[in-house]
Amino acid sequence: MMKVTGDKLFKILAIVIATSALAILIITGYTLSAGSMPALQKFGLNFFFGQQWNPVESREIFGLLPYILGTLATSGIALLIGVPLSLGIAIFLVEMAPRSLSVPISYIVELLAAVPSVIYGLWGLFVFRGFMVKYIETPISAYFGWFPLFSGAPGGLDILTAGCILAIMIIPTVASISKEVISAVPNSIREGAYSIGATKWEVIRRWVISYGRSGIFGAVILGLGRAVGETMAVSMLIGNATSFSAMPTSLFNPGQTLASLIANGILDATSSLTYSAYIGAGLTLLFMSLIINVGAHMVMTRVFKDKGGAIEQ
Fold first, then answer.
1. What does the pLDDT look like over 222-243, one tens digit per residue?
2. What angle do CA 269, 241, 77 make, to 5 degrees?
3. Cβ neighbours of residue 122 under 8 Å, at least 6 residues apart?
4. What CA dihedral angle connects 177, 179, 184 and 188, to 10 degrees?
5. In order of start, what are the domains of the chain with their CATH numbers?
6. Phi/psi of residue 233, nearest 5 degrees
7. Partners of 61 in the beta sheet?
8. What's the pTM value of the predicted model, to 2 decimals?
9. For 3, left (φ over 0), alpha (ψ -120 to 50), or beta?
């Protein structure tokens, strides 16, 4: 009888754990594909590029384009606002704040990552929405209302508010990981930069961020993953527009994302085709997440393949 050593047992266990993640992904994809097949067979590509979503049994027309664009719009706003703030927090905590200040703030930032999304949604609905209407959307509408992206009457339950609440939600995750990445930069790099006369800003921009950019990029991808799949907070603040007005033509218009569409409608599905369409929306969301993550990692690999995230020369 062959004796199993500790190293072999550990190797087998590691392989099983690693392959289980792939197995879960394959099973999930197969389940969603099988469930969405009736809708895909009936509507074909129009299921992804159609602009109407009507679950009434006598009509049953399903098109996901407004919800795909709504997902991309809210996630884009979240990244545009959240990533610079997160990076600024991480740089301040590591490079500028004294330890007596950085330690408690770091704990607070990490605790914010554990707050349930429904709490963000309630806070956004009763507090943040009023702030957005009064101080953000109304001034933008007054000065830039002629621009189609900011047309319409500000109401607070719209794509812009949903994107901003997503930005607030991803800040703790991106900031915490970026802080750890920046903290891992060797002090010898900083000392070498200071020795040749670099200012603090130059050290941070040209050496610290450049050295840890691959890790920071990974933090951004994790934040994007949360933004794309977020449901409750977005459902409470995006306005949940009907299919005929869900196209995100303006940031001040109500909209919907794929996640909010599924959450708001799947329990009311009255026919097998309608149920299949909602499963198809879930399959689309899964593929969007995979494409975004795989594409981002491919870009990261291509950018850093020569330097491996090392200091920019």
1. 888 888 888 889 999 998 887 6
2. 120
3. 236
4. 150
5. 6-305 (1.10.3720.10)
6. -60, -40
7. 54
8. 0.88
9. beta
